[in-house]
Amino acid sequence: MTASTWMMAIVDAIAIAMLGAVLWRLRRDPEAGWDAREHRLGEIFDRIRVLIAQSEGIARDLDASLAAHATRLRALLDEARRATDDAPAAGGDDVVARVRRLAAAAVPIDEIARRVDMPAAEVRVLVALHGARNAATKSAQARATTVRQ
Prior knowledge:
Among the domains are: 50-87; 89-149, no CATH class. Helix content is 89%, strand content 0%. It contains 5 helices and no strands. It has helices spanning 3-26, 30-86, 90-104, 109-116, 120-148. Helix 3 (90-104) runs antiparallel to helix 4, helix 3 crosses helix 5 and helix 4 (109-116) packs across helix 5 (120-148). The protein is elongated, with a radius of gyration of 44 Å.
């Protein structure tokens, strides 16, 4: 026997082994596996449809709740505007006067902000404006006294 004969026998044996492997794999019904997968996919799609329906219902409930909150907030805003319009305008001036009195008493800015319930930055602005106004008034008085003399 020559080498080509042995090679042919080996190739034939490999072909028979591969054919046996294919037959072994095909002995089970290949459609049964696909049917099971198809059934699982159908269940998954059904669950997804249910979840979508539930999320749409929850979204509608949330939308209604947000609309109710918006209506309530608008009513509160309107009520606050009416209360502000009815309140005397001197209320803001009273806070400014308190800030000026406390600043004149050399109370620290943070303490003034805490007492009048106002941000410290706004208190600094009010104190600075009051200080600038006082400085302008003093310089005007000094010029007036200088001119009189």
